[in-house]
Amino acid sequence: MVAYKKQTLVDYTAVDAQKASAVQKTLLEIYNSNNAFDQAVVKSLVQYVDEQVKDATVDVDANLALLKLFLVYPDSLDKAVVIKVLAKAVMALPSQFFSGANTMISESLREDAAIQNLLAAGYHLQACAFEEFWKVDLSAATKIAGFTDASYSSISTSVLKSALNISDKEVKDLVAAENWTLEDEIVKIPANEDNQVRPKKDVLKVIHTLSR
Asked: What is the pLDDT along the chain (212 residues), one digit of tens a residue?
C-alpha cells in the first residue's frame, strides 16, 4: 500500500491577495493582462513549481499550463522541471492532475528513463498495483520534498475506497476492526511482516538458501 502526505490544492487565480506569495502575485498580474501563454511566463511558472515543492502544495492548472508552454516553446523545455511536475502529480493521486500531465508529455520526453519511470509509477498507483510501484526506479524524484515519504504501512482513504469499492462508513468500520488508525484521510497500518521491506542482506540469504 502506498500513500503520500496530502498535497494542499491551490489556485493562484483565486488566492487571497494578502496571502498570495510573490510568485503568485506575478502570475496573477500576467493572467489578468491576458498574456498567460507568452513564452516569458515560463520563468515564473518554473519558480512556482519550486514553491509548490517546498510548501507541499499543488496548483494543477498552473502546472498543466507550464507543460503546455513547454510543448508550444520547446526551446524553453527543462526536463528537471518536468520531473518535478510529474512527481507532484504522482503525489497528488488520485486527483486528475496526473492524467492531465500525462497527455502533455511529448514523445521525445517519453524516451527519457526518468520520465518513463515516473509515468509508470503513476500508472501503477492508479491501478493500485502497489508491488509494481515499488519496483520502479524513482531515484530522479528523491530530492523532491515528501516524495520518499511513501510507505507500505499507509494508504489514503480515497485509494482504499477505490481499491476495495467501499464507502466512507465501511472504511471506518474496517479501520476499527483491524485496529488501524485514521488521520487526515490517511489510514495507518501498524508494521508487520507483510508491509515492511526486507533488508537486502535478508533477501540475499533467502536466495542463497533456495539455491542449495
From this structure: 455 667 788 999 999 988 999 999 999 999 999 888 899 999 999 999 999 999 989 999 999 999 999 999 999 999 999 999 999 999 988 889 999 999 999 999 999 999 999 999 999 988 878 778 878 888 898 878 777 766 445 677 887 787 678 889 988 988 888 888 888 888 877 655 544 444 434 433 433 333 34
Q: What one-character-per-residue DSSP string does 40-92 give? A: THHHHHHHHHHHHHHHTEE-HHHHHHHHHHHHH-GGG--HHHHHHHHHHHHHT
From CA 4, how far away is CA 111, in angstroms rounded?
27
* 98 three-class SS: helix
pTM of the model: 0.73
Q: Which distant-in-sequence residues (6+ apart) come within 8 Å of 38 by Cβ?
A: 30
Cell of 167: 464507502
